[in-house]
Design brief:
mainly beta; 2 helices; five-stranded antiparallel β-sheet; Jelly Rolls; 5% helix; 40% strand
Length: 184
Amino acid sequence: MVEVRQLGLEGVVEITPRKFGDSRGFFSETYKAADLKAAGIDLDFVQDNHSLSSEAGTVRGLHYQLPPFAQDKLVRVTRGAVLDVVADIRRSSPTFGKWVSLEVSADKWNQILVPKGFAHGLITLVENTEVLYKVSGVYSKEHDRSIRYDDPAIGIDWPSVGGQRHLSEKDMNAPLMADAQVFD
């Protein structure tokens, strides 16, 4: 069984799988479709992605894909820790432009579910952080989009980590939400 906790935006949840440990180490079913389905989460994941951020303060996002290649994401950290951020980019939603965050870490053994219609980003809290995430749709360069991580209209409260933020050129040049193509 898994523990599922709502995070304040429709469909965005924290998932914590059970972890069994002894003197040898531990065992955990980090993804079990039947347990998620019993918790009301019925998704088909088609791809796993794995990233390493060597520097603390690395920002990735805010990323999403447009339909028909929109993706649900199930994100976990296998080494290190991140502050994971999810922003509602569905114009018709009563929570459009709102965001939630959750510390996801190897120590907490938790995960975050990011549904379609939300932009996803993170900042690494420690160096050499590895993030693994499942997606429900394949990558499509033509549908890949991003929004500035520091868009004042969203107002994400990013922590100061290591005195410097490390971003890709793509993320530094991402448009503001007002200029981005988002969900209706």
